Amino acid sequence: MNQNSKLKIEISDSRYPKLLKELGRDAPKQLYYRGNWDENILENCLAVVGSRRMSSYGKQITEKLVSEIAGAGITIVSGFMYGIDAQAHKAALEAGGRTIAVMPCGIDLIHPDYQSELYQEILKNNGLVVSEYEGKFLPTLWTYPRRNRIVAGLSKAVMVVEAGEKSGSLITANFAKKLKRKIFVVPGPLTSSLAVGISQLIKEGAEVVTSAKDVLEFFGRELIRTTETRSLSADRDRVSDSSMEQRIIAELQKEPMEIDFLARNLGISASEIGRIISVMEIKGLIQGENGKYYVH
């Protein structure tokens, strides 16, 4: 099949995704698509969503988590927008995995158009591009949240990486909640505006992700470690989170510190320190103020 061929699947078709039908009356009556449609790509899907205003931490953590998850055979579904969406698609491809891009526009458009290279890479690597709209239907304010219901509907679980207070990612999470799908969140620094939505989801019962293993266990898969598969942090092989928490507390008892100073003193990456500190804040072990952290 030509990867650029345009096809359509009606809701009455036996190939129409069963999980998506659970949207009931809100399920799209048809899906237009490009790529190779097969049952395998739809069997175990994880939606990965987050802020368009992706931070360097969000970029790094998305790369590491998604590369391991996709490398274990889980299909990554996202909305193709710049930021976390695009980074999730890229990480899946770099890990040799498959990914599905759900568009807020007609199937004949690439939106945003400057991501045409990523679009073609998805198709070249047996991925899918789907939309409920035909032709060159332009994206509008209402098609973005409508698109999000498809992202959630195709997936057994949703992982939110970064989300502000009014992030579109929260719309996807709400659809997942209504469908009784699993919701995972990646903790971020509580001083960041991109962690506001994450904190809200945690309060509502979302599961905090500390490694790709948390997600893979849900899908009944094991982490595949190869020379090309990056772990969340090489430091985790040397020290457990609990002992690292103790070391962080010991450092902060000396004086309040910023994440970069802690990372330098403890000899591990700033992104890893940030992840552990976020969990420690949620536990109430430490507190942040003006970029510095201290023990209660």
Task: Describe the protein.
- The protein contains 12 helices and 11 strands.
- The protein has 296 residues and is α/β, with parallel strands linked by helices.
- The chain has 2 domains: 6-218, Rossmann fold (3-Layer(aba) Sandwich); 234-295, Orthogonal Bundle (Arc Repressor Mutant, subunit A), CATH 1.10.10.10.
- Strand 7 (157-160), helix 7 and strand 8 (182-185) form a beta-alpha-beta unit.
- Helix 3 crosses helix 9 and helix 11 crosses helix 12.
- The chain is elongated, with a radius of gyration of 20 Å.
- The model is unreliable at 226-239 (pLDDT under 50).
What CATH architecture label of the largest domain applies? 3-Layer(aba) Sandwich
Number of DSSP E strands: 11
- By DSSP (H or I, 4+ residues per run), the number of helices equals 12
For the terminal residues, how far apart are their CA atoms? 61 Å
CA radius of gyration is 20 Å
How many independent structural domains? 2
CATH class of the largest domain: Alpha Beta
Q: Low-confidence spans: pLDDT under 50, at least 5 residues?
A: 226-239
SSE order: EHEHEHEHEHEHEHEHEHHHHEE
Strand-residue fraction? Answer: 15-25%
Strand order of the largest sheet: 1-2-6-5-4-3-7-8-9
The CATH topology of the largest domain, please? Rossmann fold
- Structural classification: alpha/beta
What percent of residues adopt helix (DSSP H or I)?
Answer: 25-40%
Give the overall silhouette. elongated
Mind summarizing the main beta sheet? 9 strands, mixed
Mean pLDDT equals 87
